[in-house]
Amino acid sequence: MKRTKVVDALACTDFGKDINVKGWVRSHRSSKAVDFIALNDGSTIKNIQVVLNPSDFDEELLKGITTGACINVTGTLVESQGAGQASEVQCRELEVYGLCPGDYPMQKKGQSFEYMRKYAHLRLRTNTFGAVFRIRHNMAIAVHQYFHDHGFYYFHTPLITASDAEGAGEMFQVTTLDLTRTGRDGAPVPYERDFFGKKTSLTVSGQLEGELGATSLGAIYTFGPTFRAENSNTPRHLAEFWMIEPEVAFMDKDELMDLEEDFIKYCVRWALDNCKDDLEFLDKMIDKTLLQTLESVVKEDFVRLTYGEGIRILEQVVKEGHKFEFPVTGWGMDLSSEHERFLVEEYFKRPVIMTDYPSEIKAFYMKKNADGKTMQGTDVLFPRIGEIIGGSVREESHDKLVDEIKARGMEPESYGWYLDTRKYGSCPHAGFGLGFERLMLFVTGMQNIRDVIPFPRTPKNAEY
Ligand code: 4AD
Ligand code: MG
């Protein structure tokens, strides 16, 4: 008999018909007269209730139906007597596909996320992670839908690269050289013998290649994994994360901010429209303000604030007695997420797009303002997250870009192909990068970025 997914079985009101469902046991309650099995197959956060008369089945068989076991159930779809569900299955035939021994690490309810992280391969079977990863899928679809509808082309940029897109030196090297034999005794590493004939790494961003796409196709976006060897053990940093990077020819700073705000609101709206059951579950179990927070973000205008104004506000509240863990040292300082979150959560109580940062604290490719001190960056700061988007107008002048690269001690030679965008038919353009897992943190209400990617990569952690 053809299997029906639990999500469809729950929606079906064709009572009396034969039905087959398969899935993993969430709980099994037994009594003399009747057994109840809550069954989940991942198609929805909701379980379908399987009801059976224990005297109709082998006792040993029923004993094997413990939390985590996988079973195959055939029976009749009946109207449920219990509250909270329309239908249930009156079981006639029962087969155990896979028993689940008592040492199953996900057996107990209410385990901490830290505990479950040790079993990232099994935590996927819990309600919370099922909800999170169904939402993750939906957010990926939202990203593609938004850009497709707005005339952007999905542009694939390489994961292995010889250039440091952010110029921050935080790259993982890629090599086939035998590291136990090369470059010994201070001898230079013979990269000419390496696979690509030069030093290569995993990319920190697809932006530079994205700019090549934008200056030909007009508007592109990338959506892929990026890698950063920064030793940041925080609830917001991963060594491997997914980034979405649109890049648009002829776009100025105001249009860029409009795009950032419109895109992020679209994604949050999408979650509210398409992930209702999962969000309601997370709102109940993880963060009681989740739905309300998501609703308010799509409704409110984001604050647009220059870095200079932001620093003045921080200095003012420090004078008035507000205490920060990291000192507010004035103009030129890099904001910590504590400062960003103060502005967003306490001062404005809305997302903030911060612009016109000092050039020195940002990447080399950002377009400088006429003052020579600040540049046209447009970061989006979010409640609970801090920076969720980093973006800017790009420096389109070839000579200014070369000067900046040199001033930062980087080598213009390694950016020759990138500089060609400025040499041949250069154009004003802009773009941004959204950290997909940071968006996921916001949308799910989860607290730790390790819990919104199936298999997290962080310092000293590359299991599976
Ligand atoms: O601000 P970032 O470093 O900007 C760029 O990479 C630009 N090339 C983007 C562009 O303009 N095309 O990173 C962009 C975003 C951050 O705002 C943050 O959301 C996320 O990527 N991000 C991280 N997410 C998780 N773990 C990390 N280690 C992250 N580093 C950045
Ligand atoms: Mg940034």
Question: How would the blueprint of this fold be written?
Answer:
Blueprint: H1 6-11, E1 18-30, E2 35-40, E3 48-52, H2 59-63, E4 70-79, E5 87-98, H3 113-117, H4 120-123, H5 127-149, E6 153-154, E7 160-161, E8 173-174, E9 200-202, H6 207-217, E10 219-227, E11 240-249, H7 253-274, H8 276-285, H9 290-299, E12 303-306, H10 307-319, H11 337-348, E13 352-355, E14 378-382, E15 386-393, H12 398-407, H13 416-423, E16 429-435, H14 436-444
Parallel strand pairs: 3-5, 6-10, 12-13
Antiparallel strand pairs: 1-2, 1-4, 2-3, 4-5, 7-9, 8-9, 10-11, 11-16, 13-14, 14-15, 15-16
Helix pairs in contact: 5-7, 5-8, 7-9
The structure holds 4-amino-1,4-dioxobutan-2-aminium adenosine-5'-monophosphate and magnesium ion.
In brief:
Helix content is 32%, strand content 22%.
- Category from helices, strands and their pairing: alpha+beta
Q: How many domain regions?
A: 2
Q: CATH homologous superfamily of the largest domain?
A: Bira Bifunctional Protein, Domain 2
Largest sheet: 8 strands, mixed
Assigned CATH class of the largest domain: Alpha Beta
- Taking pLDDT < 50 over at least 5 consecutive residues as the criterion, the unreliable ranges are none
Gap between N and C termini: 36 Å
Identify the bound ligands. Answer: 4-amino-1,4-dioxobutan-2-aminium adenosine-5'-monophosphate, magnesium ion
